[in-house]
Amino acid sequence: MEGRKHPISHGVLTVFYLMPFSFLIQSGLVILCSFQWTVVAKDLPQCKETDYYFEYTECDSTGSRWRVAIPQRLGTCTGLPDPVSGTDCTFSCGAGEFLEMSAQQCTQCAAGTYSLGSGMRFDEWDDIPPGFTSLATYMDSGPAGEDTLTCSNSSWAPQGNYLESNRDECTVSLIYAVHLKKQGSVSFVYQYVDNNIFFEFFIQNDQCQEMDQTSDQKWIKLTNNGEWGTHTVDLKSGTNILYWRTTGILLGTKVVKPVLLKNVQIEGVAYTSECFPCKPGTFSKTPGSSSCDLCPRNTFSGKGASSCTHCDKDKQYAPEGSAECKEKPACSKKDYFQIHTPCDSEGKTQITYRREPCPPCNPGFYNNDTATCTPCPPGTYSNGVKACQKCPAGTEPALGYEYKWWNVLPANMKTSCFNVGNTKCDGMNGWEVAGDHIRSGAGSSDNDYLILNLRVPGFQLPTSVSRTTGSEFGRITFIFETICSADCELYFMMDVNRKSTNVVESWEGSKEKQSYTHIMTKNASVSYTWAFQRTNQAQDIRQYVNDIVKIYSITVTNAQDGVASSCHACALVSQQSGSSCVPCPAGHYIDKDTNQCMECPPDTYLSGHQIYGKESCVPCGPGSRSNKDHSLCFSDCSFSHVDQNRTLTYDFSPLGPVGSIMNGPSFTSKGTKYFHFFNISLCGHEGKRAAVCTDNVTDLSNKDLQGDSSEFVNYVETFVCQSTIIPSDGRGFRTALSSQSISLADTFLGATVESSLSDITVSSDLFPETSKKVPDVNFFYRSPQATSSCDKGRNAVITLRCNPEKPARGELGVSSKCPAGTCDGCTFNFLWESASACPRCTEADYHEIEGACKGAVQDTLYVWNEPKLCTEGVSLPGKKTSPCEAIDFWLKVGAGIGAFVAVLLVSLTCYFWKKNKKLEYKYSRLVMTANKECELPAADSCAIMEGEDNEDEVVYPNKPSLLGKLKSIATKGNGESCESVQLKSSKPERWVWG
């Protein structure tokens, strides 16, 4: 490795006494210095060539320099060669050459060595090479202001073939200083798979000022598990101080995966004064080599080898690039694995040492009495057992892949084994077929990545849905289980258009048999990868070989080159038999009776992957409507609710633009400060999801989000998204860091005043109860993508609360009980208080107040009901003025009318009292004349004593009561008796019948 022996290869004069010596030469004082040296060292032996080496002085202003001899050990010999003029300062040697300082000429490297000429390479990491420094700091303070973590033991650790970063929350910098004579570059190979670690590379000059770099140059992109990436940055001439810096952010109990670094190469140094021997396990067989080759499998080499030596093939073995041969151990059970051989001509497959009947072909394939399965021809289908058949009229093949029998690996799948630290498992099968499932192989060690890959060239929508505006192009579903005793992990990854591979989901530890589905929302070529690792701890022994993952079936729909296991309906040009299929217009379904296209009813949306039958038109949720293509349901920021025979109408348009909330700060167990940042798009425009979150390491406010989203490490556009923010003052970063961006709300479910919708419930104790009479309005969202902790995906609920004291844009908040926005990690709740969350004003929201009548004029005023719980809508009417009369006039009129009524009532009372007396007298006379037993002659008329002349005073010896009189009338004619009453009068006595 270059730069390991002397600082000479750096092109930098580092011996402290050279600069004064050069100054003495230029000052003409070298004779004096030589004389003094001779006096002191007169008894020392004469220097030999092995006692010193040559080095150049710094270039002066004229571009010249001197070659001087530097003793290996000071004061051990005398008679060093005199300084001589050196080569031109721009002089350098080519790759495979070194500058022979005695003759000052470029010379080819010998076999077994190599040289980069004007560059240097670091590819041995048994220890940290000279010139490199690992510096650990902890640049954040805990909640109380004290440092909560000691970083004295944190460092980049050499692991032989690579360096490994720390796994804690310390900030650790790997530093290397180099002086370039011309413009050059630095490149390195790395593995960076965990976004819980921030990995940056930056450059400073000799004044400790950071040089200008773009964000892509400074912040390193994530790599796929088990894969290495390369990063290259241009360097300017002069001093360059290189920094590789990592910072761990432990937001949970999960152990982070470290950054791995190897093969650091720097171009632009002035020269190299020696060639460097090939490291063990490599060789260079010809002179003038610029690199060394790996020794083939079952061979080995020592340091500086020009060829490799074969191992004893009967007793030893060696992987590629070995420095020694290893003894073959005795075989054990762990070295055997169940293998299924391909079907032979008899239709048999060998499972270890037994022969069993072959399983049927996978759906979409047929056997045709041969030992192999063949895809069905276009337009036909098969279940894998029966022969291929044509699809009936009005149907078309449902193309895709459906792998559920694993006798051989499908043609579009491949398997491999990879290890970041060695090449022992290269060439091994990472996965093995096992009849009804495919499972992980044995590998060479427990931390191997066992990789299974499926390539899909693209997706082709069926004719029936080719014109729909749905966002689903296809979906992949697989059924799997993991059986583990250690910290195994299964990764499911996706590479779109051969750009970068991203982890879609991962599962740790043992998992019961379950199904997972991922929906493709972009029509592109894609590579799906399953990677299984038994443990991430490096070890040479195989301790967990029985920890396995099994995949039982893999299904991909709408695959471009797929086969069909069934047929599904499509629309017809006519109802005649044999008619060809036609695509339905957007928002139309296929009628089951006629196979014709019919438009979905209003406020329904069309199911993305099945449009057969009216039931494929799914009703929109409450408070939502469908777009014109019936592809989705959305809220137009309007809402109405009937409450106590009153219709409340809301307009949430002022809340429509994206709102943000950053809650915290929170602290990890080690004291690192971080925030949860949420972007919320309440309505969008006809379903457009306007909230954007990115995984980046620059200031969010300065990031241009108008470009191609594929350029970002992670880009989320949705209704509600979340990012984890590390503040710029938290770990010494100059800008805030955003990471772990996720979508919380892909689909709008509906808006309602109820607390539940589609199995999502808002707990009544999350937020303080409101004293307002206006009900809260809840917006429900869902992100159906399942995660390891949320089997049914994530949910989000935004509660809109009327608060006239808040501005139009309002104030977003989370529950104090769940400061991270969620209590269970799956359902997120937000409270948005705003005046815009109040209903629109109506006539019922104000009342009138009548003023006093002054000068025959009266004012009527209108005021809002208190408290005012409405916004906009109808305006408050202005003051109304009307004529009126004085109140004393009406009092007089009222008093006069009252006096008249009182006199009238008194007069009527007297009149009726007198009238009643007269009637009582007449009644008494009539009763006395009604006695039939008396012998007096009958009266000529019942109306005796009529007239006022007969109004004599009647004397009752025994005055009967009114009740007695009534009884006498009631008994008249019912008996024989009669009663006579004698009346006293001044006139002659008479008898009166009563």
UniProtKB/TrEMBL annotation:
It is a single-pass type I membrane protein. It is found in: Cell membrane. InterPro entries: Elapor1-like_3rd (IPR056609), Elapor1/2 (IPR039181), Elapor1/2_C (IPR056606), Elapor1/2_GBD (IPR056608), Elapor1/2_MRH (IPR056607), Elapor1/2_TNFR-like (IPR056610), Growth_fac_rcpt_cys_sf (IPR009030), Man6P_isomerase_rcpt-bd_dom_sf (IPR009011). GO terms for biological process: positive regulation of BMP signaling pathway. One of its GO terms (cellular component) is plasma membrane. The keyword Transmembrane helix applies. Keywords: Cell membrane, Disulfide bond, Glycoprotein, Membrane, Signal, Transmembrane, Transmembrane helix. Its main location: membrane. This is MRH domain-containing protein. It comes from Anguilla anguilla.
